Amino acid sequence: MDSSRPAGSTLDLAAPLRRGESGNGAGAQARPQVRGLDGLRGLAALYVVLFHCWLYTFPGYPHSSAPPWLGGLMFGRLAVVFFLVLSGFSLAISPARHGWRSAGVGEFLRRRAWRILPPYWAALAMSLLISRFVVPASHFGPPTGATVLVFGLVAQDMVTAPTPNGAFWSIGVEAELYLLFPLLLLVRRRSGAAMLAASVTLPVVVIGLTAAGANPVEGDNWLAPHLAPVFAAGVAGAGIVTASDRVRRLPWGWFAVLAALPVLALGAVRGSVWTVNHYFWIDLAIAPAMTMLLAAVATGKPAVLVRLLTARPVHGLGSFSYSLYLIHLPIVMAVMRRIAPHFVSPGLPTFWFTLAVGLPVSICAAWLFSRLFEIPFKKNRSWKSIVAARSGAAVRSPDVSP
Q1: Which of 110, 170, 299, 346 matches a 20 to 30 Å C-alpha distance to 222?
Q2: H helices of 193-302, where?
């Protein structure tokens, strides 16, 4: 498995619940907008950047040579689980308040493609250029024609090709899970949350238990089937937006902490090698805690966390977190491999240099990238509306030329 596979995509998801709209569950009242999800995306994307600074500074992963006190940065892979849980949760909010029905399979897929593909393709072009002419991104070698075809079609979870950007693997996984989403809604609508979780998770558990040593070895692709349960956990968790007041008052935040601590402690104690070799089970074990965290935020608790997530800097970071995820790694690699060696020695000095230079450059570049390739597709539903919006902006801007 490619050691650059740490995290998932930070995709902008379904519309949140708004004031005055009632849910479908017993005792559901008019609920406020689900706040804090963008902040969670922003913080998770920031952690992914820190993970990559750690990962590529200290060679030999998973036999990391990093100082033990930086061990908290080794859980980058778990970000993919969180993003997939968050993706399923956010996408299911609107269907949850409409009887677990969507606007239709075709419309759903069209909107996902419109939202996800333009910035992804722009980031792919950027990554190809940097990987070809600045710094390689794959142990398979420089990008090839197969790279352009496979990654252009978002088929990287099904077909192996030299990657131009080690973070792109999760985009392929999520694209496949989008195809599964309408079926998950159907199961949830007809059979309930428990049957949804069981129908997706039990086959994966059986596969795991029947593998050699009851621990499947992951490759560079075909990860979507094993990660489908974490996406389904998010879909099931979205039912919190229409749950009864009794259910919403439960201490979901504390439930999340209690569920996450054993998994994180086990990974920290056993180290990065053991953690990487057991991702199959760790991914499944951590998903319930992440779902409960989202339930806590959706119910506005704990209030201090929601205030942090909705603070302007964190919320703002979340608004372009998808762009940050897409383009940060080529920038970090260029800083680390091409610039840092001229100023600092390998190891910890390179790590600090990359944080000081690569992190702010990545954030600023992602903000600009989002303005060009992401936000126009978030605010508009078609090329016609994008052209009209830009034409309107041009009309409103006075001509100051001589």
Answers
A1: 110
A2: 193-210, 224-237, 245-248, 252-277, 279-298
Q: Model confidence over 239-269: pLDDT tens digits?
A: 999 999 999 999 999 999 999 999 999 988 8
Cβ-count burial of 19 within 10 angstroms (0-12 exposed, 13-18 middle, 19+ buried)?
A: exposed
Q: How many CB atoms lie within 10 A of CB 334?
A: 17
In this prediction the pTM is 0.88
Q: Are 109 and 257 in contact (CB under 8 A)?
A: no
Selection from 23, 43, 38 nearest residue 90 by Cα: 38
Work out the burial of residue 37: count CB atoms within 10 Å of its CB; fewer than 13 is exposed, 13-18 middle, 19 or more buried. buried
State how far the Cα of 200 lies from the Cα of 85, in Å rounded to an integer: 14
Reported residue count of the chain is 402
- Enumerate residues 6+ apart whose C-beta is below 8 A from 388: none
CA distance 325 to 116: 12
**pLDDT at residue 11 greater than cutoff 50:** no
DSSP assigned state of 4 = T
pLDDT tens, residue by residue, 319-341: 999 999 999 999 999 999 999 99
Q: Which two tokens stand for residue 222?
A: 């075909």
CA–CA distances in Å: residue 56 to residues 130, 137, 205: 16, 11, 32
